[in-house]
Amino acid sequence: MMSLAAFSLLLMSCGGQSANKSGRTEADDDAAAEEAADAKKAVVEENDDEGAPEGRTGDSEILNIRRVWGEQPIAVASDGKTVNIEVLASAFCKQYAKYKPNEVLRENLVGKPSYGEDDLGSLFNFENKSANGYLSCMAMIQYDWLTTCSYWKRSNGHKLVAFWLLETFEGDKKPACLLAFYDYDPATDTMTPETGLTKRVEEKMSSFDAYTVNLPDEGKDINITGHQIDYEEDCAYNTDFLLRWNGNDFAIEQVPSE
User: Fold this and answer.
1) How many other CB atoms are there within 10 angstroms of residue 209's CB atom?
2) From edge to edge, which strands make up the β-sheet containing 210-214?
3) 1-22 residue pLDDT tens
4) Bridge partners of 215?
5) Which of 99, 76, 71 is closest to 195 using CA atoms?
6) What is the pLDDT of residues 151-175, one digit of tens each?
7) In sequence order, what are the beta bridge partners of 237?
8) If we measure between CA atoms, which residue out of 213, 106, 94, 84 comes closest to residue 152?
9) Comparing C-alpha atoms, which of 180, 184, 217, 218 is closest to residue 83?
């Protein structure tokens, strides 16, 4: 299976262009994806000509997280600090530190780590937009290996927090992913899993071969794309969805093609 990042580059061989509600056409998305892929390719060629780095083998740690996250609240231990995305992400990444993107993300939050060239951490790009409630940690390799996170303020004073974990592989190995939602209660300083919201998204995506999630670094809505792969044509049909924020929860809408 191809990297999910490559799906939009192949879309034109599967049909025409359609626009989403933002007014961007799939040609716009193709150009942006191609630019990102070129940047990523440059790092790949420098660091890892064969794709997956040494040490990234076996089943994804995401599969282990999926088995337990819904039953494990996370103590945030804010210690009087302002609870922003950095504090919330640090608590989540500490809980699930065996997943390398989480480990690297947290290391970047608590300091400025210095990695040797043989350390997997050296392959990651950390993006901090905490002023917008967004963080990202992505490996600059041929296949996706990332954690992104965002949060929203609820009308009851709580926060809804989302973490998107994705790992894709060379060959036909199925991607591993998780979109995990939590409710943060400032009275208890605890993040409690919101499994119902995750289940709604996964049920909506169950008819697709794979899907990708773009948590917002601006605005409040989440963009999700379902990918239906045409193996004969070596391309993917994309269907876009919007998780529209209503001040407390999300409503899932399919974005009409134009």
Assistant:
1) 18
2) 210-214, 222-230, 235-245, 250-254
3) 444 444 444 443 355 333 343 3
4) none
5) 71
6) 999 999 999 999 999 998 876 677 8
7) 228
8) 84
9) 184
